[in-house]
Please model this.
Amino acid sequence: MPLSEGEAQKWLVAIPTSGSEKITHCLLVAFDAEPPCDAETLKSLLSLARELVAAWLTSETSRHMEHLARSFRIATLGELAAGIAHEINNPLQVIMGNAELLLDSAELSERMRERLTDILQAAECIRDLTKAIIHFADARRATEKELLDINQVVQEAVQLVAYSLVRNGVQVNLDLAPSLPPILAQRGDLEEIIVQLMRNAGEAIVDSGKGSSVTLRTSLRGDQVRLEVEDDGPGILPELRDRIFDPFVTTKAAKGGTGLGLAIVHNLVTANDGRIWLEDAPSGGARFVVVFPSWQRALSNSSENSEQGG
Model:
């Protein structure tokens, strides 16, 4: 069909891309002059249209399947790990209890006391790990959400971590946009997300000896409240980028990293209707971006889900 654009006239051809009676996609091709209508040209255009749409659909399906696979992987590993952690906790309590009782005995030699102290410290490390695993699996626990000022939560969370970062030579910068709409989330989850991302950034700087600052930034993009935690450290290795939120993937394996920190963060963000992804910072470091719907959008989404469920 012809389309007028000022004095010029363009022709628009709609080419269906499915062979069935039901047309689900079509490709629009614009011509400066009346297009050729011979069979060979139309056949070539039809073939091109179907290839382009097939490529697009394949890409969209691939991204969707990758998201589903990651969610299933996290859920499955979380349930398995939590079950193992609960089983470990029972005998662990016996080990720790007996070690503490023996340490209270005055008849121990100094060498035996040192060995028992080592046992108790190792058991405490295992206990902390099992707690982290259980927390990871239970990140979607049912707790009341509330309207939160993300800037206020950021400032409160920074107070929990800033001292240890500054003590290690890492500066903490805040760039908080004023008058942001509140978000609907669990306060404890939001605090943990911020604390974990800050600690990761600080540890990356300290361990690598590269960089000196962590910046927390908030802004409003459309109807979404955005939080960025950015560092000027070494960045994330290319081979880890696609798996950075998977359980047990760590950049600190040599230093005892469990690989659960970012997996827990991902779970907490998702449980609060948010999204998180990794970007490269201009400095070469890492920038983790977290977005949450504003409270109006969150309530709208909740109402729509309730209607669909009913």
Remarks:
- Helices lie at 39-103, 110-137, 150-167, 187-208, 238-241, 261-271, 295-309.
- Residues 3-7 have pLDDT under 50 and may be disordered.
- The chain has three domains: 2-64, 66-137, 146-301.
